[in-house]
Please model this.
Amino acid sequence: MKNYLKIGLLISAISLTSCEDDLTHPPIGLTTLEQASTEPTLASVESSVNSSYDLLSSRLNILGNWDWLGGLVFQNDYIMQDIASDDMEKKWSPDGDQVWIDDINDYTFTSTNGGPNGLWKYNYEGIKRLNIAIELLTNPDIETLTGITTARKNQLLGEAYFLRCNYYFSLVNNFGGVPLILQPVKTYQEAFDVAVRVDATVVWDQIKSDLTLAKDLLPNTKYSSDTEKWRVSKGAVIALLAKSHLYTKNWSAVAPLVDELAGLGFSLNAHYFDSFRTEFTDNEVIFAFDHQTNAVPRRGNGICAPLGWGFFAPSQDFLNAFEPNDPRKSLTVNVPEKNVNKMLGSLNGANKGNDDAPNNKIYIRYADALLWKAEALLETGDYTGAVGL
Model:
């Protein structure tokens, strides 16, 4: 009888522990006491900004281990953009795999769907990290405490403001009004208190305000760092500010900002595909996540991994949108060396599906900015200027 009692108590303890674990998952965006260090170092300040870039990457499982339904495998921005817009099919041959993507394609998805959940969780995780970084960098004693130079502090702060704006841009563009969290959230009660949806106009105003601050903080050069060209630059800030004005229909503000990009040295590449090669191109790419193969910790691109199961095939409507003989069609749908066997050569590894490809995830190109300018000119009645671009 004693043995039965012991077994019963053990099972009860396990059950209670399991239930307790389910109820004590920290909310997305919560800052731990260890993260909110009261004694910052130069290394911790640098790390607080650098880690905030991670959520932009196409690396697999940054927030979760194959939790597709929870939206934790990818940020899922491309699913919400390309599947929902019908540029891509979930698969050319429909099956029961990842049904939540079918729901996005059919516009029958709910709040539990992995697509919007991925966007929400990845962007707020990025915002959480950046709120920590901004709090550190705006500490009036940070230079004395860490030995960081004023120039480096300003650069990192400019990067942090831009990145937070980039994450909020994704949120407001996909969800409209969202909770606007601008300080580290350090307790569960705070997490619930700040989870209040604000009007979309408030979020847009914050984005524009922070980008204006970032523009003045970053070096007046094409790149913030000649050795780390992937870092946020003044050009990236100007471009996102132009895009923000475009999305809020402030047409007259767009063209002057885009014109500033040419002054920083950005231009179109000679060949359309140049921007998408593994090398970081100096002409057209304004902002991208710099994927690297064989990096420790892992920094490769994993976006190609699902292709092996037939996911994300181009839709027929997408294919039909190309004009005859448009070279972009073959470069977009069948990139060089995609169909490979012993007769045709070997893969160069740029698009391998093992979560370690080196090709970058491009967020802003100069070509994008020119199209924004053309749209803004069109909306103001300058048809000649728009067509001329």
Notes: The two ends are 86 Å apart (CA to CA). The domain at 28-335+346-388 is CATH 1.25.40.390 (Serine Threonine Protein Phosphatase 5, Tetratricopeptide repeat). The first helix runs from residue 2 to 23. The first strand starts at residue 88 and ends at 91.
